[in-house]
Amino acid sequence: MTSLLDIIQLVCREAHVPMVHSVFGESGVNATFKIMETVKNLYKDLEPSRVRGRIVVYQMVASTDCSTTPVPSGPTTDFGSLSNRSITDLAFENVSEWPVFKR
């Protein structure tokens, strides 16, 4: 049986990845897969029904004019620590070669 996350990943791979690649290139595709991996890891520890608002996961991608992205600051995230909390909204920033940051 295919899980909802597997279906979302398949749709993303077949529909969104080609568009991301055409606009952002390989770094955009890498960011897309890292975001999917982050969401999959989040849902291993946090049941979606515990969140009463939105969940946003994003990753900055350097434009072709700029080869660097800013280094983030703030708390990193341990998804397991969210499992027993009542949550309204969540936002996470993926950073290449860094842990996930809670915003």
Q: What does this protein structure show overall?
A:
The protein is α+β, with helices and mostly antiparallel strands and 103 residues long. It has 1 helix and 3 strands, in the order H-E-E-E. Strand 2 (90-94) and strand 3 (101-102) form a beta hairpin. The model has no long low-confidence stretch (mean pLDDT 75).
Q: What key phrases describe this protein's structure?
A:
3 strands; single chain; three-stranded mixed beta sheet; 1 helix; about 100 residues; alpha+beta
**Beta-strand residue fraction:** 5-15%
Question: Mean pLDDT, rounded to whole units?
Answer: 75
Radius of gyration: 15 Å
Number of strands: 3
Largest sheet: 3 strands, mixed
State the end-to-end CA separation. Answer: 34 Å
Number of helices: 1
CA-based shape: globular
Topology:
Elements: H1 4-45, E1 55-59, E2 90-94, E3 101-102
Parallel strand pairs: 1-2
Antiparallel strand pairs: 2-3
TL;DR?
With 103 residues, the protein is of the alpha+beta class. Helix content is 41%, strand content 12%.
